[in-house]
Amino acid sequence: MKRGTWAERSCKQLKQSRSNKQNVHKRSIFQKSIAIILLFQMLCISIVPAVAFAEGEQTQTKPPVKATAESLGLEVSSAILMEATTGQILFEDNADVPLPPASMTKMMSEYIVAEQVKQGKLSWDEVVTVGEHASLTRGSRIFLAQGDQHTVEELYIAMAVGSANDATVALAERVAGTEAEFVKMMNETAKEMGMKTAHFINSTGLDRGDMPEKYRPAGDDETVLSARDVAILAQRIVTDHPDFSKFTAIQKHQFRPRDKDPIINLNWMLESNESIPSFKRYAYKGLDGLKTGHTKAAGYCFAGTAERDGMRLISVVMGAKTEPQRFIQTKKVLDYGFENFALKTVISPKSTVEGTEKVKIKKGVKTEVPVVTQSNVNFVVPKNGNIGNIESKVDIKSEDELVAPIQKEQVVGTVTYTYNDGGAVQEKTVNLIATEDVDKGSWWRLFFRAIKDFFVDMFNGIKNLF
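The structure corresponding to this sequence follows.
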């Protein structure tokens, strides 16, 4: 009886122990299940805002509503807006219509003179003797007399800041001998730049009838430019001569010590004018150029450029009704650009391209050379958007062209980036360059390399049989 009682008691204890273990296991499973459910709920709560945020970001990447002259409230004959580094057109209205540009013509004269200095054919401190033609030139001027002497820089400032016709003719004659020969240079340069409608008859932008009769060219044609051509010219000025604002941003200049009044810059939108009572309402942040123009036939014109947050825009308005209006209309165009677009860098200078970190070369002490991009690649994208839809294509030179010796920074190929924002496709090609010198290998090195390559190829051929 006692043994039975002990046995029964032991059996009950065993069952109880098993039951306790099962209960503990069940509680553990229950607790884990509760923890998983709570964790899932927490994740759901945190994910929903993230998804909503991501959806919000995607909405922001949609291109801005395409502007029209009506939506911007423009009152001009034609207009265009360009990003300077890419040449991307952000807005245009009648941009290909050839119109009289008035003194915006002088932008080409400025470019050619600056190129002459850059090439060493002129110097800023060279003294120029004024000829008869310049002394007879009317319109906006600094009253040069035949025989007067001034430096190239003094005449250039008078041309760029005060739009002085006589100073422009004096420089044209110094560069080419006569204004007629200088005009040939202007038209040739326009073709080289890809300007489609540009046609110059003088260096100043004066109408034919306002030129000195003795120096008036034959025919009845006039100077014409489209807004697009003016923008192309402006782009070349700011990219080929990045110090352009050294002249165009000058507010005023005392041409002669005896002059009663200084030359006043006709560009009311200069940022530096924000402290000038008569101009401060027109002063525009980041604006430092370029050129105004006015004749009866042209109306009031202005090619402006401004830089903000690393993006430089070029605007052109032609045929505004009044002097203040050319600046008011320009503000509308520039505001549209800066408020809706940004410049994004796809790849920086001296960066490696994924998948093309090295390029194979022949007959060198090395068989490969590291390569990087020569310059950066930028695209204009909708502001606050991300830069998606980027495709790249690498094009490496043929083996016969990549033969040692290879010099550092030698071009070995290109990479082309294409960006499609659902509208205009932007494409830019940049060179790939070697990062180091690679000397030609010695005869012995190349001989043993050839033997090695022979056996490697033979081994691979045998391996592929099995």
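The chain has a mean pLDDT of 84.
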